[in-house]
Amino acid sequence: MSGDLRQHLLPSAASSPPVLNGRLVLDAEAVPLLQDGALPPTLPRLSHLWDADSLKYIYMGAWSGLLVLQFALTRVLAETLSMPSDADTFDRHLMYETLSHFLLFGFLLGWFINITDHDRFIWLFSWRRWYFFVVYFGTSPVYSYVSDYGCMEHSMEDIANWGPGMWAAVGSLGGVAVIFLLVHFYLAMRRQTTAGALVYLIARLFVFGFYVVAAVYLGHSHYCNVHIHHYFTAWCVALFAEFNHPISALMLAISASIFVQGSAAYSCAPLFNNGGCMTTVRPTTEATCLFRGSQNFTLMICPLDGSPPFEEANCYVGDALQPDANLF
User: Fold this and answer.
1) Which domain of life is it from (predicted)?
2) Where in the chain are the domains?
C-alpha cells in the first residue's frame, strides 16, 4: 500500500523530466530554440501533481488536523459533561490565545517526530497503526475522568498535600515515561549512526535545557512564579517519539493526547508568570493602594478570566470619587 501510494504521489526516475546538459528541460533556458529563435509551442509538464516539497505541507496539515480534532472533542466534554470538573471557561480571547500557542507547540512537535517525511507519515497514518488512533483518542477523556477523583485533584504547586493516591499515580506515569524514553534511547542507538543518535538526543535536551535555565533564572525572582503544567511535560516526552516502531507510536499517542487534554481543558497557560500581582478572593474587598510611576499610566482592575463581573465598584482618585469608573 505504501509503495503504491508513493508511486502515484512522487515522480519516479522513469517519469522524471529529461535533463539536457545537466539542466531540467522544464527550465525555459535549457530548451533548445527553434530555427527562428522561438521556443517550442508547449513545454514539458510534470507527470505528477505533487512532489516531495508539496506533500510535506499536506502531511503537517494532517497532523495539525489530528491535534485540533482531539482539542475540539476535549472542549466538548469539558463544556457538556464537565470533564474535567475544574476545566477553565474559555472566552473568545482565551480561545484564540490558547489555539495560537497550541498550534505552535503542535507544529514544533510535528517537526521533531519527522511527520513531514513521506515514509514516516505513511507508516503512522496507516490502518495498520489502528492502535495509535485508539490510544490517542482514548487517553484524553480517560485522563479527564481520572483527574476528577479526590486523590488526584492536586498540582505541582501543592505537592506537600499529595496523598498516597496522587503519589501512586504520578509514580506510575513517571515510571512508564522513563521506560518509554529508555526504549527510545535504545532505538536511537540501533537505528541511527553514532552521530545521528547524538544529534537526536542533543536536539531534545537543548529544548529541556532552555526551560530549565529559564526556570532556575526566573525562579530566583520574587516577582516570577514557575509552574510546570502537565500539557508541557507531556509535550516534552512526545518530542522523542519519532521512530517507526509500535512502542514509539504508543508513546506518541499517550503523550500527545495528554498534551492536547491539558491545552484544551486548562489552556496553554504560561510556565512563567508575574508573581507580583495582588490577588484576593472575597465577595467584597476594600483596599487602599498607592501606585506610582515615572510617567502617566493606565490602571485596570478587573475580575480573573472566567469570574463574574463586578456588581458594584466605587473608586477614588485622590479624595475624589470617580463615578464613571468602568466595570469590567
Assistant:
1) Eukaryota
2) 1-50, 56-274
